[in-house]
């Protein structure tokens, strides 16, 4: 991976942070330059210089982002910066037992960033806590595939198949939905 990656983390009980740390470790082992930033206190300025970002967030309440992400969401919504120089991916942690709001924290970021002109590379990873699979095991494997499919440049490939992979759900999650 040639472009530095910033992982932005929002968590209530620490899972997303642990997942982000595992992802950082596995990508750094591949020679990537990875910075991990908790979202607490961040505003839209974090995206000002453009770049390559991975949002790692859980979902709470009725499909809300964790409290620590609210300031960043509010700032993006009020200032509505033009983010065409941003490429991003999303690791969304959730639980299917919450039904319609499954992984909506990640979806909220995805919709907001794309509405500001940022480009998502690949599909989101949606992790289902009720699947029995551990997110800290699923996410690093997903992240390796995700980075590979961006061709290590922090940009989504163009042309047929662009933005399709890697798989958006874990194995057990897919099996359940089939
Ligand atoms: C009070 C509460 C509300 C939750 N609400 C949702 C929800 O609406 N949708 C969802 O997909 N997951 C929901 N979850 C599941 C969490 O997002 C999931 O367990 C996640 O892995 C927690 O990650 P964290 O420790 O980083 O916050 C909720 C969990 C709790 C405890």
Write a brief caption for the model.
The protein is α/β, with parallel strands linked by helices and 178 residues long.
What does the model show?
Strands 1, 2, 3, 4, 5 and 6 form a 6-stranded parallel sheet that branches. With 178 residues, the protein is α/β, with parallel strands linked by helices. It is globular and about 40 Å long. Helix 2 links the parallel strand 3 and strand 4. It has helices at 15-29, 67-79, 104-115, 135-149, 171-177, and strands at 5-10, 34-38, 51-57, 86-94, 119-120, 125-128. It has a single domain (5-177), classed as Flavodoxin domain (Rossmann fold). Residues 11-16, 58-60, 62-63, 66, 93-95, 98, 101-104, 129 line the site of flavin mononucleotide (FMN).
Poorly predicted ranges: 156-165, 170-178
Q: State which percent range the strand residues make up.
A: 15-25%
* Series of secondary-structure elements, N-terminal to C-terminal: EHEEHEHEEHH
Top CATH class: Alpha Beta
Bound molecules: flavin mononucleotide
Shape: globular
Q: Give the rounded overall mean pLDDT.
A: 88
CATH topology: Rossmann fold
Give the beta-strand count. 6
SSE layout and pairing:
Elements: E1 5-10, H1 15-29, E2 34-38, E3 51-57, H2 67-79, E4 86-94, H3 104-115, E5 119-120, E6 125-128, H4 135-149, H5 171-177
Parallel strand pairs: 1-2, 1-3, 3-4, 4-5, 4-6
This protein binds flavin mononucleotide (FMN).
Flavin mononucleotide binds at residues 11-16, 58-60, 62-63, 66, 93-95, 98, 101-104, 129.
